[in-house]
Amino acid sequence: MSTSASTAQVSTNNLDAFWMPFTANRQFKQSPRMFVGAKDMHYTTSDGRQVLDGTAGLWCCNAGHCRPKIVEAVQAQVAEMDYAPAFQMGHPKAFELAARLSALMPSPLDHVFFTGSGSESVDTALKIALAYQRAIGQGTRTRLIGRERGYHGVGFGGISVGGIVNNRKTFGTMLTGVDHMRHTHDPARNAFSRGMPENGAEYAEDLIRIIQLHDPSTIAAVIVEPVAGSTGVLIPPKHYLERLREICDQHGILLIFDEVITGFGRLGTPFAVDYFGVTPDLVTTAKGLTSGVIPMGAVFCTKAIYDAFMHGPEHLIELFHGYTYSAHPIACAAALATLDTYEEEGLLTRAADIAQHWEDGLHSLKDCPNVIDIRNLGLIGAVELDPIAGEPTKRAFSAFLKAYDDGILIRTTGDIIALSPPLIISKDQIDELFGKLRTVLMTID
Q1: 217-230 mean pLDDT
Q2: DSSP letter string over 23-63?
Q3: Architecture category of domain 3-54+347-443 in CATH
Q4: Is the pLDDT at 188 greater than 50, yes or no?
Q5: What is the pLDDT of residues 18-39, one digit of tens each?
Q6: 297-301 β-sheet, strand order
Q7: What does CATH list as the number for 71-345?
Q8: Domain boundaries in the chain?
Q9: Per-residue pLDDT at 12
């Protein structure tokens, strides 16, 4: 189909049937923004324009778009075997992928449970944590601890431990037995920090307050994002994560890192586990696992957790949990090819080489109107804008629309612009991204 024919088809489609996720549906359908193609660092719009991807899709296309090795692997797999059940059956690529993934993680994170998304990975990790405590005779440990402003997907488990108000307020009581530590955002002391803030390690002590309130014998696990992404890029203060690990160890509580965003090279290391030198008991991943090509997630757990379930008669199921699409053959093929692409191009560590250029470009926006904070780590960045009085989110949304018109894709959450480009971005493209973003910030009200 020609480009003109494709554009004509898009323009005549009825947009009403699709209830779009996390979207202002009425605004969008009055003035649609349609992507019809993608390659490497760019999307192609329905009117033929190129848009530089400043967000890796939704934090997921870490290797860029339509990379040949991944495309070919998916095409070959769908022709060979489209689907295979993971319940009581297997296929070779699932075991190959699990072995390759576990080799990327520090010991003792040696085992992998496959899911279909980040939300499913979070619910899986929470269920494994609860089941593990029961398996070791600690069945009173049923409480789960999240953090204010945390984002852990949109399942009931994820929104229960999550701490973003709009993701929670409409949906009732959610899971019981959940509490939240305070967030670490401290603009009064840390505004415009470059990298990890100097102040705020003491916020980890809020976990002790919660432990004293509920008693440690009731708490199964604590879940945090090493870098909080969807809430607007909150960087952990220096020594904060180390202190959380210490407190959990002291009280027999499992620590879960949600690395759906930080996993697979985002910080210049394979995982945030490596960047911060803190090893949790469980790690949730998705997004960059397949570079966004096919939905897939994975949960890493320690050998001790896995072994706690491996007892009793061998014909019995050890964990009553799983998904129809766990270890889907096409997803496994995509993930294996994605790992090959990361390895061949050094993408799991490339962010470390360009992080300083990224940081300098991002912080060059400090003098733009309405900018009240800038945050960065690895290839993640945020520009926080002063909200318009009485109209929260409107200023950032105006920036988003203007940016799209000017040929860059950014993401907004509240009045925060979040950026997380594919790991293949060049220095010239970083300069283009921030140059155009400067124009946007200088022209919006």
Answers
A1: 98
A2: S-HHHHHHS---EEEEEBTEEEETTS-EEEESSHHHHT-TT
A3: Alpha-Beta Complex (3.90)
A4: yes
A5: 999 999 999 999 999 999 999 9
A6: 111-115, 297-301, 282-285, 254-258, 219-224, 143-147, 178-181
A7: 3.40.640.10
A8: 3-54+347-443, 71-345
A9: 53
